[in-house]
Amino acid sequence: MGGLRHSWLWLSLVLLGSGCALVRPAPPLPAPRPAPRGVHELLVDATAFNSLAGQTDAQPLLTASGERLRPGLRALAVSADLERAGLTFGTRVEIDGYGEWVVLDRMAPRWRRTIDLYFGDDEAAAQRFGRRKVKIVWGP
Question: pTM of this prediction?
Answer without folding.
Answer: 0.70
